[in-house]
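Appendix B, record 7
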Amino acid sequence: MHAVPQSNLLNPAVQISCKYFVGIPVLSSIHLNYSNTAFTYNDLASTDTWNIEGISKQMHRKDLYTGGVQINLLGLGYRHKSYYFTFNLTENIRAYQTIPGEMAKMAVNGNGPVLGETVRIDGFRPGGFHIRDYSLGVSKVFGPYLTAGIRARLLFGKANLTTGYSKVKVKTGEENFALHMDGDYTLNASFPMTIYQDSEGNITGIEVHEIDPLDYMMNRRNVGVGVDLGLIYRYSEELTLSASVLDLALVRWRTDLNNVKGEGVFDYAGTDLNREITSGLLINEILDSLSNSMDLTTSTKSYNYYLPPQVFLAASYRYSEHISFGVVNRNVIYRSKLHSSLTLSAQAVLAAGFTGSVSWSYLNNSLLNAGVGIAWHGKGLQFHAVTDNLLGFFFPFDTRTLNLRVGMNLMLGCPRNKRERLQEDSYNYLPKGGYCPPPESQEKRLRRQKKVVRRMNKI
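Structure tokens (predicted):
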């Protein structure tokens, strides 16, 4: 929906036809998201007790659980000839957890099914952040076929939790269920808290300090930088291709630091063939022994945190003046694991000022995602609302995905008639339809379009 200014957030090359846009502060774009790649709440609560055994069968090698809120406090856009400039101020809060499927299966089934085998349960990695993002972007039409954009970002971190290197291997004895575990784990946090240890180095407690809201929100010591890149290529009059790479960014954390590193080798002798590790009492016994065998060290060192990068690949096909179809492939990398989704959509002009879209998505290992979107453009005002899974709001306990983006913008200097719309077309080469010129050769059309670009750059 490239007529909505916030589509530029997903591809810095996108240009709108209006000369200016001003996002209504706080209300210009609010994005809420929850996702779970393994199960729904009703999968977990489908029996009288928690259905742990059932959901363990649905888990994959590494599953991802995420939630987040993104609020665009201020958004601005300005067109100058074939250039389009944007500025955004955004609060970004995100939490995520990766869980290895083998860990869940061992917790449910015990170690009986893997006698004599070595099982890797790497990837139990919680994380999250709160970052304020100042960004300045520019997009330019380079010719009749290509538009490119770049966005520079200045980041100020407020809070962070991240796990670094994580490696855990577990081997079960073939005859007596003995366990041999080799582990190496690190955790970094930037949050006002204190970690207490005893004389032997064991962690005995964690105290969270009172947070001063003003100091927290105005903290500028955790500085980071980033960049987003985007391309739009007009393959033909009907087909447009686009791609973007987002969140190539890092933050250097320097305040309220806590680092924990654990490493060591743990051996549990086991007992007999009939005592698999399935009882809660035995599991607690093993966890206590494991905690005592790990060599834990704490420190307060600065560290770097890299945002999970995103890659979007898309194509749109203009069927007629009022109807178009699209496909979007989104890829995000959490902790060296690629998570992909695919969306098919159709968009239509419903009435004067109204544009609507419907979509189907393969998200979080689920096919049950039907989405809708609507944009209304009145005199100087635009409203938009988009979701990837409409049914999820009516049946939240049966969904793995909840996703909503909603906002309002002031739109100024927009085309008022056909003549002005055609003039804007010369900038972004996205024809609105309604005009059928006589056939001409591709070479002649290319020379004509280049001539228009040169003329417009002189205005």
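Remarks on this record: Residues 442-457 form the longest helix (16 residues). The helical segments are 41-44, 52-58, 101-109, 213-217, 280-293, 391-394, 418-428, 442-457.
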